[in-house]
């Protein structure tokens, strides 16, 4: 569910149809035809942030383009990316994002207790130096005001290099935007979304 509701293809204008086509192709390629219920229903209706962006498809096109561009920045492993995403989710508590990443975390190597630690605002003791640097920087970016402290920035450069640091900062910014949208429109994961992933 979301506050804007779901749009049927019968109601699409040109912009909505173009956005739908891009997202449908992306989801089918990403999930090899087995798209999670949280993203697309069996009848093809889009869910999650994709459903809300159908109401502003030009924004949706840019949202998807930005997400793809951020993901293409080199320098972070899927596990490292997930640290930053989970820290951001722990700040905003967007229902849809939390449900999605409670599933995605273990898929990239997170133990359940480590996810629980991050979601409760604690850095897991199992993280190595690079993971600790990512956790601290992401936590600062979503929970504090002002510039990232030089010491934290230097730690990122040491462990991730310039590309990884750029990736991390853009990733936290992108997911912060995403979670504000999810919370603003009260986007919920379907009750059976976790089982259907």
> Separation of termini?
17 Å
* Rg, Å, rounded: 17 Å
What is the number of independent domains? 2
* CATH H level, superfamily name of the largest domain: AhpD-like
Number of helices: 8
Going by helix content, strand content and strand pairing, the class is mainly alpha
Shape: globular
In the CATH scheme, the class of the largest domain would be Mainly Alpha
Strand content is under 5%
Q: Order of SSEs, N→C?
A: HHHHHHHH
**Low-pLDDT windows of residues:** 193-197
Protein name: Carboxymuconolactone decarboxylase-like domain-containing protein
Characterization of the model:
There is one protein chain. The chain is mostly helical and 197 residues long. The chain has 2 domains: 12-71, no CATH class; 75-184, AhpD-like (Up-down Bundle), CATH 1.20.1290. It has helices at residues 14-30, 48-53, 57-72, 78-92, 95-107, 112-119, 129-143, 150-184. Helix 3 (57-72) packs antiparallel against helix 8 (150-184), helix 4 runs parallel beside helix 7 (129-143) and helix 4 crosses helix 8 (150-184). The longest helix has 35 residues, at 150-184. The two termini are 17 Å apart.
